[in-house]
Amino acid sequence: MNCKVGVVLGENLRYHFPKPHPLNEDRYKIFLEKLQELLDNNIVIKLSARRATDEEILLFHEKEYLELVKRLSKIGSGYLDYGDTPAYPGVYEASAYSAGSTLEALDSIFQGKVQHAFNPTGGLHHAYKERASGFCVFNDICIGIEYARKKYGIKKILYFDIDAHHGDGVYYSYEEDGELYFVDIHEDGRFLFPGTGFENERGKGEGFGKKLNIPLKPYSGDEEFLRALKRAEEMILNENYELIILQCGADGLRGDPLTHLNYTPNVHKEVTKLLHKLSHEKSKGRLLALGGGGYNFENVANAWITVLKALALNE
Q1: Bridge partners of residue 182, in order along the sequence
Q2: How many CA atoms, within 13 angstroms, populate the side-chain half-sphere of residue 229?
Q3: How far apart are CA 252 and CA 234, in angstroms?
Q4: Is 2 a residue whose pLDDT tops 90?
Q5: pLDDT tens, residue by residue, 118-131
Q6: Of 16, 116, 125, 126, catalytic
């Protein structure tokens, strides 16, 4: 099955921090080099990045926090959290382009330009309404959820996160939301930032039972991940959705300098194939993929190319 897949490229690729920060410009350069073959062969198409408006950012974030980001962006120094997420000149604009590119991807899906879309600078799952966290300035996922619900009138969404770090900014923001189905397979929070995402965290109120956190021990590999994926299938296969979001962080791959997992890109292949099939059965083909973390840049590029091939070629 060949599917029309769009990749959002442009000013969003400015979302990186000055070297020697682990999320620096080389990450996107290496990905673009490997992506070129898919573009040249029309396996994927380019979508143009756009900047989110302040009104769109405020669909999720608090105004005081937005103003802080703008102010430190002009100053060009300081930190947006307790030390992981530095401000630099233009961090507001770069972050707004990252968030806007997720919204452009959503528009392209809902308006039928593509079936599936990928924003490599999206998936910033640690940011909260009122603060940055863990290299994440604006939480494009939560902005995107609110945007899709407001603009397109949808409610039921499946969010699936395979980043090595728990997607705490998404989980706690929608812990009581009964229409946001949440699956997160990650390294055990006892050993890795942000220290959350335990098995007993299943949601609250109307959200209880709609959330699944599966922490894995350090040095877990493909076998452990695929067992977790089977558990996730039991929860997600019996529901219909209006949109599926995959946060396909690559920091769980063997050799990442910040985590302790031992995946191969086969993890990305298997989860993408599952969600790709599910999207055509359950969500009218609507599937949005977001880059997430990853600090071994060869790993990142290989994982993301694997995701795109699984979406476009089902391989």
Answers
A1: 159, 211
A2: 17
A3: 23
A4: no
A5: 999 999 999 999 99
A6: 126
Average pLDDT over residues 44-48: 97
Report how far residue 51's alpha carbon sits from residue 62's, in angstroms, rounded to the nearest whole number. 18
- Pairing between β-strand 157-161 and β-strand 116-119 as defined by DSSP bridges: unpaired
Burial class (CB in 10 A: 0-12, 13-18, 19+), 271: buried
DSSP state letters, 170-239: HHHHSTT-TTEEEEEEEE-TTTSTT----TT----GGGTTSEEEEEE-TT-BHHHHHHHHHHHHHHHTT-
Q: Are 311 and 5 in contact (CB under 8 A)?
A: yes
Helix/strand/coil (H/E/C) assignment for every residue in 252-281? CECCCCCCCCEECCHHHHHHHHHHHHHHHH
Say if residues 268 and 248 touch (Cβ distance below 8 Å).
Answer: yes
Does residue 1 register a pLDDT over 60? no
Could you give the 3-state DSSP secondary structure of residue 141? Answer: helix
Strands 116-119 and 211-216, bridge-based pairing: unpaired
Q: Who's near 122: CB < 8 A, 6+ residues apart? A: 98, 99, 101, 102, 105, 140, 141, 144, 290, 291, 292
β-bridge partners, 119: 290
CB 5 within 8 A of CB 116: yes
- The pLDDT value recorded for residue 112 is 96
pLDDT at 315: 72
Fill in the DSSP letter of residue 38.
Answer: H
5-313 topology per CATH: Arginase; Chain A (3.40.800)
Residue 116 a catalytic site member: no
CA distance 151 to 210: 24
* Terminal-to-terminal C-alpha distance of the chain: 9
The whole-model pTM stands at 0.98
